[in-house]
Amino acid sequence: MRIRLLTPAAAAALMACTSLGLHLNAQAQDWPTKPVVLVVPYSAGGPTDVVARMLAIPMGKSLGQTVVVENTVGAGGTIAPARVARAKNDGYTILIHHMGMATAPSLYKKLPYDPLKDFEYIGQVLDVPMTLLSRKDFPANNFQELLAYVKANQEKVSLANAGIGAVSQLCGMLFAYQAGVKLTTVPYKGAGPAMNDLMGGQVDLLCDQTTQTAPVIKDGNRVKVFGVTTPQRLTAMPQIPTLDEQGLKGFDVKVWHGMYAPKGTPAEVINKINTALNVALKDPVVVQRIADLSSELVTPDRATPQSLKTLLESEVKRWNTVIKAAGVTAE
């Protein structure tokens, strides 16, 4: 049997690769040794920001390091994913994003990242229903009156959203599309400013997540609510009918959230973040606060990398069909 000896250069290269592999493995085992940045694509106080800050504390306790929430706002929520996609793949910069990860490829002609190729998946987080609201002195008092009014006065009715690409824009777009009307859309820099102007009477309508709208609805006299966007009524607010049961058949918008890391982040690090996420999803304070916002944390079988990957792939296809049918694009 012939034994082939490595040349000095080949041996040195092999030793270097082995040393690098051992070094990276040791780093993954020691991770984290400093705070982890959780990037949010939207403004402070908005729905996604609220969820991120709820999860950050129990995740930090589980990891043994602070999880710092940073709001990276702009371009319809596309700047934050682009930032994370370019970040060092060491697990210290991660992303929480809603279904905007699935809609961006159809909304934007030039996207500075690929949602399906530029990230590692950590897991799904929660589902958030949405509600259709109006200013408190809007002429309509129920959904049928709302439909009649917007059809007769569509050129006068303003529809607020939290910015191009935000889920409030998509929900409002679907409402107008299925109602057969074209309304004046008013984009804001975040859900908070949009809600403030709705309550102040500066705009007429807003469709947004219950993390943002539930406290206002429960307050009783600051807005009017015309329906929820899921096929079933909300357990926390069963008195509010769905848009589907009131005539917009098949209307179903539920805002799912997921966590991502840059492509190439070590599997050991992803597993540690996923474990911390699952700990946070069971935290009693988080569970209660999410329930108060009429939202639903995912079950453990959905808080996995594979589950989020499968969901994102299917949602990219779904929203591509919807957005093309509505003829909506963003620069």
Describe this structure in words.
The mean pLDDT is 90. Helix content is 44%, strand content 18%. Helix 2 (47-63) packs across helix 9 and helix 4 runs parallel beside helix 11. The protein has two domains: 34-127 and 256-326, Bordetella uptake gene, domain 1 (D-Maltodextrin-Binding Protein, domain 2), CATH 3.40.190.150; 130-228, 3-Layer(aba) Sandwich (D-Maltodextrin-Binding Protein, domain 2), CATH 3.40.190.10. The chain is an alpha/beta fold and 331 residues long. The strands form two sheets. It has a six-stranded mixed beta sheet, sandwiched between helices. It has a five-stranded mixed beta sheet with strand order 7-6-8-5-9.
Q: How would you summarize what this structure contains?
A:
The protein is of the alpha/beta class and 331 residues long.
